[in-house]
């Protein structure tokens, strides 16, 4: 009997289900009802509301109706109806609301949802709100340009999901704004997102989750792109309150499978993802091009920022690529901080990420597991101040860390690659590059897989030279830069360029070796360095918060023969910024046409410094920088040994003189204005492109000093062969015009190319030539080139316009082999009447 009753009951339920669906109706808008909301009110559970193309200015509420609401896409599968059928909230509130426990048969599909603006304290999302145990599907929607202003939290610019279960399929969620969850905000909910795109959404005012903000929720995200979302603060000083440019998760569980998190940004942490105390799996995914940075040196976890203190929780990465992400402070690719030993990563590649400080690839605790079976690779990441690939902090009493990798950057890593290398036991199967145990040669026309040990086989980029070179206190090295332009566009150069202790980076000449930042980044970032120097280079078109061209600190740092021009900073030191250092020597610099955007007296200057025990400025030109040329501050005001901030200026051309120097703070800054300083127009040659060589009448010619001693230290000691004329010139570019004792030029009457002297020579010699006055007031085009016996060009010594005069050109053959060489002078006058060509031989004997 009981069995019969159960069978009858099941039959009755089936009949009721069939009966209900048999009588489910279709309501057409606007044919059957004038508006969508009227259609909802008149509908019954199970009905379908079909909306014709058009723009409907409405703010609709499902009011607990378990119905399907769709455009003609529902019946035709024609995706063009999605853009043609628009529900416009007219900035009068949330566009679509589910808040009455709608069940899983509820569907919204095939619309563009736009222009929803939620007023303060309404606790709704801008585009769509799902609350109070609603259970529904959102499919084939474009949710665009909505905004939530709801009080302190501003929930979900595009979608708010609270205490609900929602399926999101094939949706585009873009250009929405909020404070938490620019695209989607979910809390205490269960959400599946698939085949969707979440892009160009933003959160501001210490906002979190530009694309997605989630707390206390379960999530499955699959086949979805999360890109170009932004978490920022309009006041840069408060930018360290923003997190998760793409995704922000706290106390969540779930999985991301086959997703792309790309080109998202956070002012503080987690450019791509910021994940706290969550148990999550990310697999088969790409984390690329994200950034966590603010100009004021904040920013961690460019790709991923993960922090966990919960037992049993971890971030599991399987088959994930983390590439080309950037963080200002640490963890360019990923910052992974867990107090609990983690589950191992598997098949994870972390490459080409960058930090402006430490931990270019990964910054982590030793609780991160990288076992032999993990098959992970970390290579070609960059950070200027150590741990280019890995920055490791020992944890829970560990005294060492053992790391197993498939591929690492170099064959013989040191502190530059792994910090701290002394505590790390590295095992790897493959190295991208072999380490180089000698000086290195670099040319924009080279290749980074070359040996790099000769001019004939140079590397292409300085970044690779710094990565491959092996150096220590007993093996100082030189990186030789060939003539040419080093930039991202010409040779894929990476700026800011770091340095390493005990290295000299040396160009061919300041007017031939050019480092160009393209106006996007600082060019040299050499902080906390020891015994380094930069020579014979032009630094131009850099941009940074402090130090548009160069930011440097350390001990025994020498910067000489540099042209530093057309750089820009938001604060101090538009050309060069020197900070917290024992001793920095600036010798024969031309610092000009640099701009600081901060007009505060303490935060400007073509050359700016803060907290430098001994800063020496000798034989330099500082001219035409905006708003001022020199600015010196006191931070920190006291050094460990009780000294003061001391600046010594000698034989330099400083526009405005001593009176125009900005000196900040109290008497802890002492500026010693020594002999030989002038305040004159340097009289650059000019032109387009601008030539920073000195004209023949410049007061900077012969105005430098060949010998300078300060407090027992010899800073300059030049032999006569190392400069032209009676004394070195001020600035980076030594004039090649000979001036008599009285300061009047002796003009020649005929062309002449003299035999070099000495000859034979080792390793340097001088070539003299004369250009007569040939009846024209305009300068002639002059080329002086050195060739080998096979006719191959070795170097170009002169390639510019010169007026009539006597010239002498030094030639340093330190990098050449013994043999016979030919030097050739060619002069073309503007009128063509005085052209001259002549060649001579010289012998190099070593």
From TrEMBL:
SUPFAM superfamilies: Pectin lyase-like. Residues 61-225 form the Right handed beta helix domain. Residues 757-828 form the Secretion system C-terminal sorting domain. Pfam families: Beta_helix, Por_Secre_tail. This is 5'-Nucleotidase domain protein. It comes from hydrothermal vent metagenome.
């Amino acid at each position: 009997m009981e069995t019969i009753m159960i069978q009858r009951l099941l039959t009755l339920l089936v009949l009721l289900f069939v009966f209900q669906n048999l009588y489910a109706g279709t309501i057409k808008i606007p044919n059957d009802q004038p508006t969508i909301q009227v259609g909802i009110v008149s509908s019954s559970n199970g009905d379908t509301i079909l909306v014709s193309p058009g723009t409907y200015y409405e703010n609709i509420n499902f009011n607990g109706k378990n119905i399907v609401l769709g455009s003609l896409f529902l019946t035709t599968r024609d995706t063009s109806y999605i853009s043609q059928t628009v529900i416009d909230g007219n900035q009068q509130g949330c566009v679509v609301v589910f808040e009455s426990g709608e069940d899983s048969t509820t569907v919204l599909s095939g619309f563009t949802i736009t222009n929803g603006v939620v007023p303060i304290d309404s606790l709704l999302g801008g585009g769509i709100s799902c609350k109070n145990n609603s259970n529904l599907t959102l499919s084939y929607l474009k949710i665009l340009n909505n905004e939530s202003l709801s009080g302190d939290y501003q929930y979900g610019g595009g979608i708010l999901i609270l205490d609900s279960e929602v399926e999101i399929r094939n949706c585009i969620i873009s250009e929405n704004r909020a404070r938490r969850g620019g695209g989607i905000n979910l809390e205490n909910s269960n959400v599946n997102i698939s085949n969707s795109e979440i892009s160009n959404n933003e959160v501001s005012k210490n906002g979190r989750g530009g694309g997605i903000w989630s707390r206390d929720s379960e999530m499955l995200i699959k086949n979805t792109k999360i890109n170009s979302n932004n978490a920022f603060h309009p006041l840069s000083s408060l930018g360290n309150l923003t997190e998760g440019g793409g995704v922000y998760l706290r106390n969540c569980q779930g999985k991301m499978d086959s997703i792309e998190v790309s080109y998202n940004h956070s002012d503080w942490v987690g450019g791509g993802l910021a994940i706290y105390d969550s148990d999550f799996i990310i697999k088969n995914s790409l984390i690329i091009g994200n950034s966590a940075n603010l100009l004021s040196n904040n920013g961690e976890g460019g790709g991923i920022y993960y922090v966990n203190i919960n037992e049993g929780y971890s971030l599991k990465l399987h088959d994930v690529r983390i590439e080309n992400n950037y963080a200002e402070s640490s963890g360019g690719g990923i910052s992974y901080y867990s107090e609990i030993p983690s589950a191992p990563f598997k098949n994870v590649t972390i490459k080409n990420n960058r930090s402006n400080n430490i931990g270019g690839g990964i910054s982590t605790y030793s609780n991160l597991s990288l076992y032999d079976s993990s098959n992970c690779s970390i290579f070609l990441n960059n950070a200027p101040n150590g741990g280019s690939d890995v920055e490791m902090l020992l944890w829970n009493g560990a005294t060492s860390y053992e790391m197993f990798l498939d591929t690492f950057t170099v064959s013989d890593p040191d502190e530059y690659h792994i910090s701290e290398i002394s505590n790390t036991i590295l095992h790897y199967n493959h190295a991208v590059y072999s380490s180089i145990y000698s000086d290195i040669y670099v040319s924009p026309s080279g290749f980074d897989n070359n040996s790099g040990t000769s001019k004939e086989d140079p590397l292409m980029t300085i970044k690779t030279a710094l990565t491959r070179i092996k150096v220590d206190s007993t093996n100082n090295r030189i990186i030789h830069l060939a003539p040419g332009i080093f930039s991202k566009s010409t040779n894929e150069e990476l700026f800011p360029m770091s340095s390493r202790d005990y290295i000299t980076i040396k160009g061919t000449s300041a007017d031939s070796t050019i480092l160009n930042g393209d106006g996007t980044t600082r060019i040299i970032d050499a902080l906390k360095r020891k015994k380094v120097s930069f020579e014979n280079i032009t630094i131009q078109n850099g941009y940074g918060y402090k130090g548009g061209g160069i930011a440097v600190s350390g001990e025994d740092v020498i910067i000489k023969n540099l042209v530093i021009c057309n750089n820009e900073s938001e604060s101090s030191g538009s050309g060069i910024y020197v900070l917290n250092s024992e001793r920095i020597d600036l010798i024969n610099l031309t610092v000009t046409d640099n701009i600081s955007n901060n007009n505060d007296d303490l935060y400007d200057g073509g050359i700016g410094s803060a907290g430098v025990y001994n800063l020496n400025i000798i034989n330099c030109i500082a001219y035409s920088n905006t708003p001022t040329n020199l600015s010196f501050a006191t931070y920190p005001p006291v050094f460990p040994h009780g000294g003061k901030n001391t600046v010594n200026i000698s034989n330099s051309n400083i526009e405005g003189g001593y009176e125009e120097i900005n000196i900040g703070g109290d008497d802890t800054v002492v500026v010693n204005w020594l002999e030989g300083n002038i305040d004159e127009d340097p009289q650059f040659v000019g032109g387009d492109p601008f030539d920073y060589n000195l004209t023949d009448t410049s007061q900077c010619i012969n105005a430098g000093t060949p010998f300078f001693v300060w407090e027992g230290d010899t800073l300059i000691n030049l032999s006569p062969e190392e400069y032209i004329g009676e004394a070195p010139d001020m600035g980076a570019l030594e004039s090649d015009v000979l001036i008599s004792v009285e300061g009047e030029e002796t003009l020649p009457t005929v062309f002449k190319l003299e035999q070099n002297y000495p000859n034979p020579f080792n390793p340097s010699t001088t070539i003299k030539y004369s250009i007569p006055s040939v009846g024209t007031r305009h300068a002639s085009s002059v080329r002086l080139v050195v060739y080998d016996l096979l006719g191959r060009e070795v170097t170009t010594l002169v390639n510019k316009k010169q007026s009539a005069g006597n010239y002498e050109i030094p030639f340093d053959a330190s990098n050449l082999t013994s043999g016979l060489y030919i030097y050739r002078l060619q002069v073309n006058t503007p009128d063509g009447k005085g052209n001259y060509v002549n060649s001579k031989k010289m012998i190099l004997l070593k």
